[in-house]
Amino acid sequence: MPITTCVFDAYGTLFDVAAAARNAAREPGRETFARHWPAIAEKWRLKQLQYTWLRAVMGTHTGFWQVTQDGLDWAMESEGLEGDADLRERLLQLYWELEAYPEVPAMLHALKDAGLNTAILSNGAPDMLDGAVKSAGIGDVLDDVLSVESVGIFKPARVVYDLVGARFGCAPEEVLFVSSNGWDASAAAGYGFATAWVNRAGDPMDRLPASPETVLSDLTGIPALARA
Description:
The chain is α/β, with parallel strands linked by helices and 228 residues long. The protein has 2 domains: 5-15 and 99-227, Rossmann fold, CATH 3.40.50; 19-95, DNA polymerase, domain 1 (Orthogonal Bundle), CATH 1.10.150.240. Helices cover 47% and strands 12% of the residues. It has 10 helices and 6 strands. It has a 6-stranded parallel beta sheet, sandwiched between helices. Helix 1 packs antiparallel against helix 3 (37-58), helix 1 crosses helix 5 (85-95) and helix 3 packs across helix 4 (64-78).
C-alpha cells in the first residue's frame, strides 16, 4: 500500500533539543555554564523522557511543559547549578525557540510537492509545539500538529498513534512515521506504521518487540523513502 501520510515526532526529530543549552552557553557572562552545557542538555532530555514514561505508567499525566521543567531542575541540580534562577529561566525561554535541523524545511517541502500529508505527532503541549513550529518557520508545510494532550497520556501508548488515522482517515500501512527516538519508532512499527528511525547519534537498536524498518542518519532521505 503506498504511503499517503508522513508523520514526525517533534523534539529531537524535527527540532534540535540541545539548541537551548548550546545557545545559552554562547551568551556573554555564561562562561561557567559553557563547561556544563553538554551534560545539562543530555541529562535534561533523558529525564524529560523518563518522566513521560513514568507518568504514563503511574497514571499521573501532566502537561509536557511540566515534565520539561522537572527534567531541567534535575539536570541543573546534578551539575550543581540549582541555585541559578536566571539561567533556569533563560533555558526554559530558549526551549520555546528551538531550531529545526538544517535539512527539515527542504525535506518537508519535497513531501508536500509530492502530494503527501505531513504532520507532527508529539508528546509536546499544543502551545509549545506552536512556538517551535513558528520559530522554525515550517507551519506552511505541515497539515496538522497532533499532541498527546487530546488523549491525556504520553507515547508510546497506542491511543496516541490512533490520532493519525482519526485525523487523516488512513490505514496504518499508509503512514510513514519518523522519529529520532528508537523506542518511539519501535512502538510505531509495532502499531503497524511504516517506520524510519533517525539515529543521529549512532546508537544501538533498542531491544523491543518491534523494530523500525529503516534507519537513517538524518532526514534527507525521507522523501525518497516515502515514494519507494
